[in-house]
Amino acid sequence: MFKHDVCFMPAFELARRIRAGEISSSEAVGQVLDRIDATQPTLNAYITVDHAGAVQAARHADTLVRAGEQIGPLHGVPISVKDIINTAGLRTTWGSRLMRDNVPKTDAVAVDRLKKAGAIIVGKTTTSEFAHKLLTDAPLFGITRNPWNPDLTPGGSSGGSAVAVAAGMGPLSLATDAGASTRLPAACTGIVGLKPTLGLVPHNQVPDGFNNFVHLGIMARSIADVALMLDVVAGEHSDDPHSIGVPAPKALDSVAAMAGGGVKLAGLKLAWFARMGNELIDDSVRLLCEEAVAVFRELGCVVEPINTMIENAEPTWRVLQQANWAARFYTRLDEVQTQIDPSFAEGIRIGGQYTGQQLLQAIYKRTHYFRLVQDWFRDYDFVLTPTASRLPLAATHRALDPIEINGRDAGDMRLSWVPYLNLFDLTGHPAISVPCGFTDQNLPVGLQIVGAWYDDAKLLQAAAAFEAARPWSYRKPST
Prior knowledge:
By secondary structure, this protein is α/β, with parallel strands linked by helices. It has one domain (about 10-470): Amidase signature (AS) domain (Amidase signature (AS) enzymes, Alpha-Beta Complex), CATH 3.90.1300.10. Helix content is about 35%, strand content about 15%. It is built from 16 helices and 15 strands. Strand 14 (about 430-440) and strand 15 form a beta hairpin. The longest helix has 24 residues, at about 355-380. The radius of gyration is 21 Å and the shape is globular.
């Protein structure tokens, strides 16, 4: 029998107690593996669980502690990694039948840094196929479900990572965010999801390092845990041009300075966008987000509502993303389309029909959006938005079907559900989704906070102040 309940223990606390010998890594990993096994039939958060490898790594971690060896900040802590990020010797399927047996020979840079910090990877979490949609289901593994209500989706594409963190299957998960994929699932499952400044966490898997807008994301239940993980994975790497010369965030030190509650943010000026290229927003989402905005005012901020209609960046994002998919699969589409998700096949097909001029116009428009957002940060310290315009969709909702908001047809899912998110992937600004309340149906709602380039530590300070004023990590899903 285990002596401690570690499944919902913060990573920073678990790491401290493992270092002190109060809890063994074997105990922590054992409980997390048991939790995965117990929830996998209902929630389906993992594609691959490395039972044997994790147990062996935990035993080795315990040996190092007993020997008094120098250990890293995540020593012995069980974590998960989204199944599109390379893990040496552990299969990485991208949620696709096409990659079912893919076993990378080397780790992604961020994974390597996590391992060197002592983290133990217990498995690879579910993702929509090639992370292409805002839901988490794929032909390879089926449907991943929301722990607050299994009839609903956890969002996507990093839905498995979000569910793992929210439901006690490891306190940290390394995810990705190209258009919404960390922040949306975080909002849907009541946890924290950070998309750092582009390049702050190097991404050495993308084929185009210069035009890349795929960020590596961090998912946790608390701001302190996000800061701890960010300090581990951030820093330049020669394979990622956006990472070269980036400053160390020193995020945990910044967040620790805000600890103790009663924190004020006097003098800061924030912009509040209730809408950003969308006409509709769910009444309950808007209510809870506006209550969160009021908290920032209580903390001493000046918050200005921005009612100017902002152009939806999704059409530009769509050209860039679908062209990227087509570059990889269009010439093989006839061969593979019966094996892949129909919505992914449709995106590839459309992407293969764009002209060079259309692609370059989208690249130009990306620069326009960057300069637009840069202008905001001349006047404001942070930007606040809802993370999503409505609550989670049904787990069985199809990606190409329209969605409803307040009982009205809202049309395309990406255009209307997450208009607040892909803009900041294109511009590269750091953005975090934090829980800002629960509806009468006990469903979480997320608030997005956006900061200036390389202000990730300041962004986490603001999020930590909000967390101290309106804590959330004590809430646990029933599933």
